[in-house]
Design a protein that fits this description.
Shape: globular
Number of helices: 11
Largest sheet: 9 strands, mixed
Distance between the termini: 37 Å
Structural class: alpha/beta
Strand content: 15-25%
Protein name: Diguanylate cyclase/phosphodiesterase with PAS/PAC sensor(S)
Bound molecules: ligand C2E, magnesium ion
């Protein structure tokens, strides 16, 4: 609905800006009730190991279905949820739902795998994060090693505090993955100091694999960095066989992307098993 009702040429930029403000206000006002109204649901994107057959995990991606707005993508509403603080209760719902679902798969006898949940900055630094996660694990009965949290490099900004939080999460037994790796501006020294488990190569590097030589070098560098630091490495946004083959040739054996599977309903994941 962004593109609707744009003014004529000269006013287009101005109108787009105003339109966006209005849309954001609309999103904000509707977001307050979304959780209570049960408007969120989760989409699950399988992650594969070694080849196209072994599902090693699923990333959960939130979706918002609003009567007035239709389906709103997380790219649009997560920043607003973050600004307003709504991300804290919404994020808690995501973690609980993801853990509950993974425990149900485990109980049904499907091969054990991890469920990955994205954390935003505000969630990560929220004072009750660790307690909340411990509680959800206890409540749902999911063994902690089957929950993975995705954080981004930018969250290392308060290094001391981040180190404390990550150490506590590590003690809990959950896994930590660095999402969108390679796009942040933080120094690499935290990789050695923080207890993290995995680097997730950002899709922007994967996208141009066959054509862009420079990105190929960046990917190779990230893979060897992961190997040297004893971290797992996964590539996201894998869209072609050529990209998959390149990654395998260069020592990356975990993948996520449209080539393998799109985000799907939980029942579809069950069918995949
Ligand atoms: P992300 O964590 O980096 O997730 C990957 C995004 O790339 C997802 O978009 C996914 O649908 C998309 N994707 C997966 N494979 C491919 C591919 O092969 N090609 C392309 N072009 N895209 C692919 P989505 O679901 O729109 O999510 C966007 C971002 O919103 C996520 O990026 C994450 O940062 C955030 N997000 C999603 N769910 C949550 C959540 O529950 N909590 C928080 N805090 N953030 C979330
Ligand atoms: Mg992610
Ligand atoms: Mg990512
Ligand atoms: Mg991203």
């Amino acid at each position: 609905y962004h593109a609707k009702n744009l003014g004529k040429n000269t006013y287009q930029v101005y109108n787009t800006h105003i339109q966006k403000e209005k849309t954001n206000l609309k999103i904000e006002s509707l977001l307050y009730k979304a959780l209570k109204n049960g408007e969120f649901f989760l989409s699950y994107q399988p992650q594969f190991e070694t080849n196209e057959e072994n599902i090693s995990g699923v990333e959960v991606l939130i979706r918002w279905d609003n009567k007035e707005l239709g389906i709103v993508s997380p790219g649009e509403f997560i920043p607003i949820a973050e600004e307003t603080g709504l991300i804290v209760p919404i994020g808690e719902w995501v973690i609980r739902e993801a853990c509950r679902r993974n425990k149900a798969w485990l109980d049904a006898g499907y091969p054990a795998m991890s469920v990955s949940v994205n954390l935003s900055m505000r969630q990560f630094y929220h004072k009750e994060l660790v307690e909340m996660i411990a509680e959800i694990l206890y409540e749902t009965g999911l063994p902690p090693e089957f929950l993975e949290l995705e954080i981004t490099e930018s969250m290392a900004i308060h290094a001391e505090q981040a180190s404390v939080i990550l150490t506590e999460l590590n003690k809990l037994g959950v896994k930590i993955s660095i999402d969108d790796f390679g796009t942040g501006y933080s120094s690499l020294s935290y990789l050695k100091r923080f207890p993290i488990d995995q680097l997730k190569i950002d899709q922007s590097f994967v996208r141009d694999i066959d054509s862009n030589k420079e990105d190929n070098d960046i990917i190779r560098t990230i893979i060897s960095l992961a190997h040297n630091l004893n971290l797992e490495v996964i590539a996201e946004g894998v869209k072609t066989k050529a990209q998959l083959e390149f990654l395998k040739r260069n020592g990356c054996f975990k993948f996520q992307g449209y080539y393998l599977a799109k985000p799907m309903k939980p029942e579809e994941v069950t069918e995949l098993f």
